[in-house]
Amino acid sequence: MKWSIPPKIVYSICVSLIFVLPALIGYALRIRVFKASYLAIGVYGLVVLIFIVLQLVFATLNRIIAIRFRRKTKQVDSEKTPECYKVGLAVVGYRESPELFSQCLMSIKQLEYPHPLKIVAVIDGDEQEDYEMAHIFEKEFQDSEVTAIPYLLSEATEQQKLDFTELCKSSAQISCYVQPHRGKRHAMYTAFRFLLNSDCEAVMTTDSDTKFDSKAIMELERALHWYGNIGASAGDVRIWNTGNLLSFMASLRYWMAFNIERAAQSFNRCVTCVSGPMGMYKASALEEVLEKWIKQSFLGMECTYGDDRHLTNCVLQKGHQVVYTHLAFCETETPEKFLRWFKQQTRWSKSFYRELLWNAKSIHKHSPWMAAELFYQGLYPFILLFSIFFTLWSRIPLALAAWLISLVAIGSIKTLYALVVSRDFKFLLFPIYSLYYLLGLVPAKLWALVSMWDVGWGTSARSASELKKESQILLKLKEALPVIFWWLLILCGVVFNIIMFTLHPPPLPYDVSSPTTIVFYPNPDQIGAESFST
Questions:
Q1: What letter would DSSP give residue 270?
Q2: Are strands 211-212 and 321-332 parallel, antiparallel or unpaired?
Q3: Are 431 and 462 in contact (CB under 8 A)?
Q4: Staple partner for 122: which of 111, 191, 359, 507, CB 3.0–4.6 Å?
Q5: Coil, strand, or helix at residue 272?
Q6: Which runs of consecutive H residues, i.e. helices, occur in 197-303?
Q7: Which helix (H) or strand (E) holds 391?
Q8: Angle of helix 307-317 versus helix 184-196 axis, rounded to 10
Q9: Quick check: helix, strand or coil at residue 179?
Q10: pTM for the model
């Protein structure tokens, strides 16, 4: 039976709603599945648990696929010279820390690949401060050439495009280009065009603060051959600066995001975001979507952030599959200060919710798991928000305690999986991330929706000249207002909860018939019975 598009859409939506509707109905009608001690599991909690279990199963199967394919290809490679794509590497940056950029370039020089790499770096800016990165590139790649392009290729005239074609013909194997500042996306476009005009069969992307494992490019290229219609492959992004609690927690969260969430998507061949620090696209797939990608707009404004997610979306819309391999990994830097981390999460949340409009155009072309993931990721924070406020103003401290326990319980499920897979006991600390989720990520998602009109990047550059500008107290205070407002709401709710319970304790049995947590909530019958028995 050959499916037409409408039945596919209906099928994908119906299957994904299996995860969502029972949860919402159960949450609204306060349906319990069963009762146990002080806690009763609600329908929403049951669906969340099933969803997480499926994620873990899919993630495990994806790991098996990656390992088996590597063994298979290694056996073939030992008998003859491996047939690999001609790969080009696109490096883009804007006033990056000299140390980070230098480390990035050194890791690129150590990449192992059977064929020479075509390397193109594009600096997003042509002022004096921007040439700092160009000089670092010349130092690391002494045989390279640095060329200034006085125009943006993404907005070039016909004559400028002809000039660019001639420039491509004379470009060296390793080259660096400096162009007017317009944002990361326009720098990526220039790098992509250079590589596509150089007859590369696959293009690898990276940021200027990324450090590669030496086998990363080989594993990403290998993943492109898993199935016949793969358009892109993603790798495992890790954190190298884990010196304080925030960055350490972020490193654990990164592991979960890539080795569980993206791995589960990969098993269904529908990874929704090939992260900027490391990803590879087939040149044919990239050529199909490049012009559409660079011209993206939202609410009548040019899109700046979310370039990696939208590029992945464009590939998915063409019907190409996107996979993830844990065997390719790199390291990148994460914010060490809470406010910078909050701005980063806000920017990522904006791109996620904005890209839902484009996701909707392609879910019928891919596994129903893609639709289910998008529903879950989109709705979960807001159901959690309702739960937070119900709990804080319920006047029953036990409900607040049970709510916190439930967050830890959810985190513990993935913690156990990470502990078994990685054999690293540091994941025992992952439940602490629940506090960062509550105090930072939830308000970031709310603020992202409120400020969708703001297309600014949010975080700034990290060169010495730019860091001097970050000491403006009023600017910092303005940026912190959403977080401060959220924390005050939480604090007032906790204080109100305790004071009202102390001054006006509710009669026994406590009325906690509404779910006060996502997974667990106090069982009012059990609370009342045990209270009376004492």
A1: B
A2: antiparallel
A3: no
A4: 191
A5: coil
A6: 216-223, 245-256, 263-267, 283-294
A7: helix 368-392
A8: 50
A9: strand
A10: 0.84
